[in-house]
Amino acid sequence: MLTMYRPSLRGLLIVAAAGLLACGKKDDAGKIPLGANAKMPADSVHKGIVAPAGVAPELTAASKAALDSGNVLFRKKSFADALVQYRKAAAGSPGHASPAYGIYMVARATNNIALADSALADIRAHNAVPMNHVPDTSALNDLQKKAGAKLPKA
Q1: What is the distance, to the nearest Å, from the Cα of residue 138 to the centroid of all Cα atoms in its chain?
Q2: How far is the C-alpha of 120 from the C-alpha of 129, rounded, in Å?
Q3: pLDDT digits (tens, 9 = 90+) for 94-145
Q4: Under a CB-based contact definition with an 8 Å cutoff, are residues 51 and 40 in contact?
């Protein structure tokens, strides 16, 4: 015969009290700040590192509408009209990469190499990684040259 276990009120109170005690505020000294350009802890791991700059500004409502319209037109293969909408979104929200992606998609679909290169440069500018996050590979390259390793052409 199986017996059912019914938790008592006392047991539930003990579990709730333990949960509240476990969720108490702890010391924030070892945490890394997430704010833009915040100062990092001065330990050996984070020395010289600055928190990344903030995220791109939000798209305005008009830019979101233009971007959505451009996406609908792009799916319908109305590339000229989609490009107009993507450019309208880019003008309304400078500093945001999403409209540049739309322009790049139109450029690739219409085989417009110059426009694709321009849009890709704009995307890279928006998604640039600060220099302190780029690894220094010069020592590795020197080691490969000494070893006589042939690197593939990029």
Answers
A1: 27
A2: 15
A3: 878 889 999 999 999 999 999 999 998 888 877 655 555 556 667 767 777 7
A4: yes
